[in-house]
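Hi support team,

I'm opening this ticket because the web form for multi-chain structure prediction keeps timing out on my end. I have pasted the exact lines I submitted so you can reproduce it. The total is 426 residues across four entries, so I didn't expect it to be a heavy job. Is there a limit I'm missing, or should I split the entries? Thanks in advance, R.K.
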Amino acid sequence: MTSSNALPMRADARRNLERILQAAREAFAEGGMDVGVEEIARRAGVGKATFFRRFPTKEALVTALYEDFVDEVLGAIDQALAENADDPLGPLRAFLEHSMRTQAHNKAFFEAVAARYVPPVEMTDRIMDGVERVMEPARAAGLLRPGVERGDVSTATKMLGAAIRPMEGLLLCEAAWPRYLDVVLSGLVGDTPMPGVAADPCAMVREFSASSA
Amino acid sequence: MTSSNALPMRADARRNLERILQAAREAFAEGGMDVGVEEIARRAGVGKATFFRRFPTKEALVTALYEDFVDEVLGAIDQALAENADDPLGPLRAFLEHSMRTQAHNKAFFEAVAARYVPPVEMTDRIMDGVERVMEPARAAGLLRPGVERGDVSTATKMLGAAIRPMEGLLLCEAAWPRYLDVVLSGLVGDTPMPGVAADPCAMVREFSASSA
DNA sequence: CGACAACCGGACCGCTCGGTCCGCATGAAC
DNA sequence: GTTCATGCGGACCGAGCGGTCCGGTTGTCG
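Hello R.K., no limit was hit. The queue was backed up. Here is the completed structure from your submission:
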């Protein structure tokens, strides 16, 4: 879709687009979603107008980058499944670990998980399908508490994100991470049925998007 | 300190101060920390200048209100202890439930717990002392996993806050709350020693405040 | 090489927010 | 009732944001 028909972009334009994307990734990782467009353009060595020629709005850039995140998460899920074929709980644990690392090293992703940015519906669908896959071995082995659903795992990533960031901009030292991963994972494993009702992020995003439209 | 020596405030001034505080409480509850000063003044039926005559800065108002929060939390802890004298886990559970309710119904408090606002050192100390008290019965009864510390309970409140707010401004229906409370509480209860190291919020706030000064 | 379209970037706009200023109103003391 | 310090609020300021405009530049193609 980026370079389909019509004549291809001029060489400098294409190069600048790449630099903008890279600069945005770095800036968002460090400063979170609300780094200014000007800051991103400056890092890319480009004028603000050049930015807005590529992306009609800042939101459009965020969406473009979010697609990368989705791909990365899905890749991590595949890897977690491949590397833990012997341990039923392994993929889920590896996925949650990956989520903690990502949230720790990418402030914008953290905020996305904390849902300050509501992603397009189909991206949430893709992520949640992956979540379903990563928890399946544990469920099949009967390790998960009866009633644990994909929404619970999604919530677990949010809980872990909140756990490793005690204060604005301050990250818990990595030595503390296993502690909270262990707490959450212990809470999902066992025989006691889950109480209450589960919430499904896909349904929520759909509802939210519908109400916004 | 508010009305010590010097001559007392004029009657209208005192009345307006009270209205500002009340309006701020409501506005912060609904809109979070970043409702504008103008909005607060408008709700109080007062000019913006009147606001800044009472509080040198918006931050000063936040601090003043945060003291109320601390008192309320400590009150809830006392109540949780008093009403659950028979159940060793009861006070801790009641405290976490209270924390969920408070975070759900008060957006500003949520953000405070998420540490977008870093409170003064001594307030954190008072809160954490209360946390220590509320977990003591469970610890004494040997219900808590070896190594669980007050920082873990503090983290638990943050995790639960993240769990009940799936997306910006959207609250999970209350039917889902027990589910996540159960997950977290299950993760803190048992025989397995806690892995990793614990983090202490008091130390962190101290460190943070020192680095900011 | 020449010409043109695509592209560039800095100046600019409109908006919001925290915070200030100043002319006017008013409660309190006599 | 008179006086005046205290308090009042709307107009104002400067900074920073997302987004636009236009005169100059540059890649590309014949």
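A quick check on our side: The two ends of chain A are 24 Å apart (CA to CA). Let us know if the file doesn't open in your viewer.
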